[in-house]
Amino acid sequence: MTQLTMQIMEKLLETEDMNDALAAGFELLVSALESLSGAVWVKDRESSRYYPMFFIGQADLTNMCIQSGEYLEGKTAADGRTRRIAAGDKGDAASAFEAAGVAVDNIICVPLNDLKGTIGALSVANRKDGQPYSDEEMALCEKMAALAAITMEEKGYSLEKARTEKQVMIQARKLCKDFPSGEGSLRVLKDLNINIYKGEFVVLLGESGCGKSTLVNIIAGMDNLTEGTLTIEGKDFSHPSDSALTAFRRSDVGFVFQNYNLMPNLTALENVQFLADLVPDPMNARDALDKVGLGDRADHYPAMLSGGQQQRVSIARAIVKKPKLIFADEPTAALDYQTSIEVLTVFEEIVRGQDTTVVMITHNPEIARMADRVIRIRGGRIASIKINQRPARAKDLVW
Question: How far is residue 191's CA from residue 21's CA, in Å, rounded to a whole number?
Fold first, then answer.
């Protein structure tokens, strides 16, 4: 445990950004304790409420806040006392995880204490093997909390993003997806819980085969779930009709793919106009090209455009419908660095200027710095969710 403590300390001290430092150290802790869930709650100095800065696993806590003394985490923050609850022992309060719909058996909750007092709480829950947490593991959590609190005080932290109330656009609960495999089936998504909020930029990270594209295909109306529920703007899309899916994809969703998917026999303007003609109230096609900086290339065919220009045409084609949601699957994978930044700048302007929700799949963790939230998927489950308090500008990304 001493070696792990040193590794956590290195992450907290060496990583410049406070959110990244906290996430890296906490991920080490949760992994070492083989826990399915974990969260770091921090006190907002303005309201004295507690908000999640970083969380891992089964529950999406993005839109939650708790009062001092509320839930196990709020009680721990209020009295500064560590709590450890084993399976079958309800303890003195339910956990915020349970309020988010996740059953909790074993849990450790420790206070975040800096030199001025308690500023929050750290919790880990649900060991994978179902066994109770040991005294040594509880002590490790207390060390992590102490190191994190001191580091936060030294580096400073902001809760501006966390305390902004968000309107849920998409809600998935216990979502599962199976695919045929041999004589049986392969479960690719496993009891996945997630919210997507209106007007946010979300990046999905994860290794190939982890379920990112499967998740996007389901919430974008291109595939069906096997189990669970899916709600979009308050409407049940768990088992929609073909006509409902078609209407949703046509009017509400824009797509940007890695391979552009432009029609080669149409000009840039005609490619955009083709999509505009499918909806009742589109943006002017030439205006859409102007927004992506290609107004002077309107009469060029795809073969006459560079890769970056073709991708910008595909973005114009996505936004011309004035969609509520844009799904982008590895939109910069085939582009060089400078062209990638140009394309990402367009996405940045779409999110910030048009209040459009963008969900982007990428393998590049540097791009994740732009996002409002970074959702990491591992093995068909939500591995972690991080709120970027200060999203980076596209022009500041380096890889």
Answer: 29
Distance (Å, whole) CA 37 – CA 127: 8
Is 43 strand, coil or helix? strand
- The residues pairing with 168 across neighbouring beta strands, listed in sequence order, are 197
- CA distance from start to end of the chain: 34
The residues pairing with 370 across neighbouring beta strands, listed in sequence order, are none
Q: What is the number of residues in the chain?
A: 399
269-318 pLDDT, tens per residue? 999 999 999 999 999 999 999 999 999 999 999 999 999 999 999 999 99
pTM of the model as a whole: 0.83
* Element (DSSP H or E) covering residue 275: helix 268-276
Q: Which runs of E-coded beta strand occur in 330-371?
A: 357-361
**In Å, how far are 108, 131, 147, 155, 222 from 4, measured between CA atoms?**
18, 21, 13, 22, 43
Answer whether 354's CB lies under 8 Å from 305's CB: no
Q: Are 229 and 235 in contact (CB under 8 A)?
A: no
Mean pLDDT of the chain: 89
Q: What are the strands, taking DSSP E only, across 10-62? A: 35-43, 50-57
Whole-angstrom CA distances from 374 to 52, 193, 391 are: 14, 15, 10
Ordered domains of the chain (ranges, CATH): 2-155 (3.30.450.40), 168-396 (3.40.50.300)
- Beta strand 168-181 with 227-232: parallel, antiparallel or unpaired? antiparallel
For residue 157, count other CB atoms closer than 10 A to its CB.
Answer: 18
Residue 358 backbone dihedrals phi, psi, to 5 degrees? -120, 130
**DSSP E strands: which ranges in the chain?**
35-43, 50-57, 83-85, 107-114, 117-127, 168-181, 184-197, 201-205, 227-232, 235-236, 253-256, 325-329, 357-361, 373-378, 381-387
